[in-house]
Automatic annotation (TrEMBL):
InterPro entries: Acyl_transf_3_dom, Nod_factor_acetyltransferase. Keywords: Membrane, Transferase, Transmembrane, Transmembrane helix. Residues 369-402 are annotated as: Disordered. It comes from Streptomyces candidus. This is Fucose 4-O-acetylase-like acetyltransferase. The keyword Flavoprotein does not apply. It comes from the Bacteria. Residues 369-379 have a biased composition (Gly residues). The keyword rRNA-binding does not apply. GO terms for molecular function: acyltransferase activity, transferring groups other than amino-acyl groups. The chain crosses the membrane at residues 51-69, 75-95, 107-129, 141-159, 220-240, 260-284, 291-309, 329-347. Residues 44-345 form the Acyltransferase domain.
Length: 402
């Protein structure tokens, strides 16, 4: 984007008027509840949110191993799926606000999203062939398992300038999501249904500001979140046997689930509201100070991409049946194992080991240098904190930006 050469010049200071009346010094601003940094300029609140979101992702992926025979587990599974990816995606949108089509931004998009997608899409294809689940064909346009999020994030980022330019971005994205849920002919490639049905959460994230996160951190919101989650769990305990999981996966049209098209539209909007309420409740209880797990928020890309191998291997090896995990204690053990595994995979050593494929330096393939200055595209000055935060990876949700 071209900038005026006068934009970066500092305005001249006004002359000091010694005859001017003295004024009391202005009252210092109240501390920003989201300003506690987790190190290296990172925001502790968002690193905490990303880590906790990726824990929910891993737990949600592990519970199908032990869902059979437990209505309570099924209710909790649906509850987590209603909001855990929307929360991840909303945060991803928030950290994509400064994305545009400049070469340095495109380079980061390719290195942090496209390259990991190609590498791990191939790795999952080989893994599934090895375990006998699927053939070894590498289908780059049909994401395997959890790889749909990287595909969706890549497409959403490319659409970011458009949704930042139009007048009613959230409303337009909701219309698109409702239309997708009512359209049975949408191709299964590119995870198109998920890309379109989850789109409103990403677009809403583009519109959020720090004050919105401060709003949900107020104590009245925190206390209100507790009965909301409790009542949601009770309702889903009743509704679980009657619920088609396609509604929470958001990967099917209404007609595919033998429902009328209008129900798909209404359910999409009802799920959007439910997901926002639960996401607000989740964010309300995210710690805003530095915790022992804050540093793990920077490594959620590893937790997201790698935990799927363990989950799918446990499924193909039938560990639930072999080790009799379909009991209350077994379900607790599976949950704790998922938490421990994804925690290890988010640690700095794993992130460093993955950097060659998850965060490679592609400055050699783009015009300009690794410092982000690209000839003919900008001033080369240091990025503002908002733009620098965009480089934080969240899959999902949470990592690549989750």
């Amino acid at each position: 984007m071209l900038q005026s050469p006068l934009e970066h010049q500092r305005a001249a200071l006004p002359a000091l008027d010694e005859a001017a009346p003295a004024r009391w010094p202005s009252r210092p601003k109240a501390p920003d509840p989201l300003a506690d940094k987790g190190g290296a300029g990172r925001d502790a609140f968002f690193d905490n949110a990303k880590y906790l979101a990726i824990v929910l992702v891993a737990v949600g992926h592990s519970w199908p191993l032990v869902l059979a025979g437990s209505r309570a587990t099924e209710a909790l599974y649906i509850l987590v799926y209603v909001f855990h990816m929307p929360a991840f995606i909303l945060i991803s949108g928030y950290f994509s606000r400064s994305f545009d089509m400049r070469p340095e931004k495109m380079m980061r998009l390719v290195s942090s999203v496209a390259v990991p997608y190609v590498v791990f899409q191939t790795a999952y294809a080989v893994f599934f062939a090895t375990t006998g689940d699927r053939d070894v064909a590498v289908r780059l346009l049909s994401p395997y398992f959890l790889m749909w999020f990287l595909m969706a994030l890549f497409l959403w980022r490319l659409l970011t300038p458009l949704f930042r330019a139009i007048t009613w971005p959230v409303q337009v994205s909701l219309l698109i999501a409702g239309a997708a849920a009512a359209t049975p002919d949408i191709s299964g490639q590119l995870s198109a249904q998920r890309v379109l049905q989850f789109l409103p959460f990403f677009v809403l994230g583009l519109r959020l500001r720090p004050e919105h996160f401060r709003l949900v951190q107020r104590w009245p919101v925190r206390w209100a979140a507790l009965p909301v989650f409790a009542l949601s769990a009770v309702f889903l305990y009743w509704a679980a046997p009657r619920t088609q999981l396609g509604w929470v996966y958001r990967n099917r049209s209404a007609q595919y689930m033998d429902q009328p098209w209008w129900l798909g539209v209404l359910t999409t909007y009802a799920m959007f509201v439910a997901a926002l309420v639960l996401t607000a409740g989740f964010l309300a209880w995210v710690p805003r100070r530095r915790m022992w797990f804050t540093v793990l928020g920077a490594g959620t890309i590893g937790g997201y991409l790698l935990h799927g191998f363990a989950v799918k291997y446990a499924s193909s090896a039938q560990w639930a049946e072999t080790y009799h995990l379909g009991t209350p204690l077994g379900r607790i053990a599976v949950t704790l194992a998922a938490v421990a595994l994804v925690t290890v995979l988010c640690t700095p050593p794993v992130r460093r080991a993955l950097r060659v494929v998850a965060e490679p330096d592609l400055s050699w393939a783009f015009r300009g240098g690794a410092d982000g200055s690209v000839s003919g595209t900008g001033s080369g000055k240091a990025e503002q904190p908002e733009a620098a935060e965009e480089r934080d990876r969240v899959p999902a949700g949470a990592g690549a930006r989750l």
